[in-house]
Design brief:
The protein is an alpha+beta fold. Helices cover 32% and strands 18% of the residues. The protein has helices at residues 2-10, 19-30, 45-53, 100-109, 145-153, and strands at residues 70-78, 88-97, 123-126, 134-137. The chain has a two-stranded antiparallel ribbon with strand order 1-2. Strands 3-4 form a two-stranded antiparallel ribbon. Strand 3 and strand 4 (134-137) form a beta hairpin. It is extended and about 70 Å long. The N and C termini lie far apart (52 Å).
């Protein structure tokens, strides 16, 4: 029955749950030696997220982030009403992020990467009411001129 519940959860709601993520949930979370089902009796997503966000003493939190997450304090320049008004600075402590290359590599290691469409092509639109000119449409990375040029260079 446990497998049924797990697979029903996987196929419900968001389609972002990959086979690899569900396997990770089972092997690295549910089957972890220190996993205790009773700890979930009082579990609240909101409270758990709030606990991750709070850092009262300026110390690193008790949670560690897997998959090569990086941490840094960042300052954002927030524009105000008009371009003549000075902007305000907003500092975010302990901002977590991943390198773009790491994310790309991770995505291509997924089983779904086999069905990614990566061959470039030109997508053209012809106005049925206008003249006979075509207009190129850019709606995916692989329809861009730079991707087409890179393919030609290969």
């Amino acid at each position: 029955m446990s497998t049924y519940h797990l697979m029903t959860w996987m196929n419900s709601g968001s389609h972002q749950k990959s086979e690899a993520e569900v396997s990770h949930l089972v092997k690295d979370v549910i089957q972890a030696e220190d996993f205790n089902l009773r700890d979930l009796d009082v579990f609240s997503v909101r409270k758990s997220l709030r606990a991750l966000d709070h850092n009262n003493k300026g110390e690193k939190g008790t949670c560690t982030f897997l998959d090569d997450w990086l941490e840094a304090d960042i300052t954002l320049d927030i524009p105000i009403k008009s371009k003549d008004d000075p902007s305000k600075l907003l500092t975010i402590l302990r901002f977590h992020y991943q390198s773009l290359l790491g994310v790309i590599c991770s995505v291509f290691m997924e089983i779904q990467a086999d069905v990614f469409y990566l061959l470039p092509f030109k997508r053209l639109w012809k106005d049925p009411l206008g003249d006979n000119t075509n207009q190129q449409i850019f709606n995916e990375l692989y329809t861009s001129n730079s991707w087409l040029q890179a393919q030609d260079d290969l």
